[in-house]
Amino acid sequence: MLPPLKLVKHGLRRTTETLAAELALAQPGTAMPDWTDLEWRLASAAAVAHGVSPLLCRFSTWQRPSWRRFLVDQRQHVIQRHERIATLLRRIDAEARDAGLPMIALKGAALHALGLYAPGDRPMADVDLLVDEADADATAGMLVAIGYEESFAQWKHRVFKPSAGDAVAGLGEHRDTPINIELHTRIHERLPLDTVDITSSVRPHDARPGIQPYPSPGALMGHLLLHAAGNMCGRSLRLLHLNDIALLATRMRPDDWEVLWSGERPWWALPPLELVARYYRDAVPRTVLKRLRRDGPLVLRMVARRQTLTHVSCSNLWLHALPGVEWSRSINEAARCLKNRLRPTEESVKERADMIRTQVWLQDQSWVSLGHRRRLLAWLTRPIPRMDTMYVVRKALDAVVAG
Questions:
Q1: Which InterPro entries does this UniProt record tie to the protein (predicted)?
Q2: Which residues are CB-contacts of 125 (< 8 A; sequence separation ≥ 6)?
Q3: Which of 62, 155, 296, 326 has the least C-beta neighbours within 10 A?
Q4: Other C-beta atoms within 10 Å of 359: how many?
């Protein structure tokens, strides 16, 4: 039986912010928290949801036996899964070279290639590949030839899953979880409705067949920031995203940051960098923050100054009626957000159906099967917990991690 959701809400906020301080403030070795049994279990849920269990295994010195066992177990799973992902990337690289297909392995794969993470430090839910639009179908054919099938497509990417293998239900990372591949032809995000596209700054100028790196650290940073902005807009940011940005920032020279201003004004970069600066001391140059604060939309600047990780992540337990509306840059865009919430577009309905079909945390949940009007009525009458959060909370409460 679940504890009262009020306790879950407060426990998630308390444990999330404590874990962020332990990992992000470069002060490992702080006194072990005086948490209740429930809070220790919620801490395991928060660590999993934010993708930082293996990093905490390395850097946290809290010696609660069951907590250490949980972290060590998670790190071992991530190490073994990393080996599988590295093998897959080598095969994709070889096949792409043979087929004459240039591509970039995005985000986590690129951070590992730079040596910012050791094997086992950083979970990777899937492999992201960027290819030219003209090469998308040929790349899809190559993926099918190595044992993948297309699962679904949306505005942002096409998703491929292994032809064999099922999702593993449980708490956190598992070595046997299938490795999905997301195929991108653009690097763009909707914030919240209008699209920001930075593809031109990410594509290499001298594309060669096979997997190659981003053209510069600044290009990788721009992608990490835009990805984080999209997740903040949807209230699904992870502590791992902030850690990625902070680690890369330590490698950046002043001129590397100029890539952010190579296209349109990077107003979207301020909120994630404000959050990184709040948790990772001295990671972000003050000159960069000052420049972004001068150019950002007023409402978003004001909101970004007071946000915490809990506010913009799944640690914020309740669903929001208008997630991301503060990112609107005009009254008209905010009005369209409201309209789309009241009457979803065909594209939104299809995306929801694809999520229900493919995401294990949405299986057998009565909320997701309700009609849109009934869900709206529920939002108006009572707080509704997030299904992704409740999935990991339930798994944490079932697991023996707090004895």
A1: NTP_transf_5
A2: 180
A3: 155
A4: 15
Alpha-carbon distances, residue 239 vs 173, 298, 302 (angstroms):
16, 25, 22
Q: Sign of the CA dihedral 57, 59, 64, 65?
A: positive
Return left, alpha or beta for 147; rule: phi > 0 is left, psi -120 to 50 is alpha, else beta.
left
Which parts of 126-214 fold into alpha helices (H)?
A: 136-145, 199-202
The torsion region of residue 161 among left (phi > 0), alpha (psi -120 to 50) and beta comes to: beta
Question: Cβ atoms within 10 A of the Cβ of 184, count?
Answer: 19
Give the per-residue pLDDT at 168: 81
DSSP string, 348-362: HHHHHHHHHHH-GGG
Does this model's pTM top 0.85? My answer is yes
Q: With contact defined as beta carbons under 8 Å apart, do 21 and 30 qualify?
A: yes
Please, what are the averages of pLDDT over each run of 10 residues along the chain (403 residues)?
93 97 72 94 97 94 93 97 98 98 98 97 96 98 98 96 85 93 98 96 93 97 98 97 97 96 95 96 95 92 96 95 92 94 87 75 66 78 89 88 41
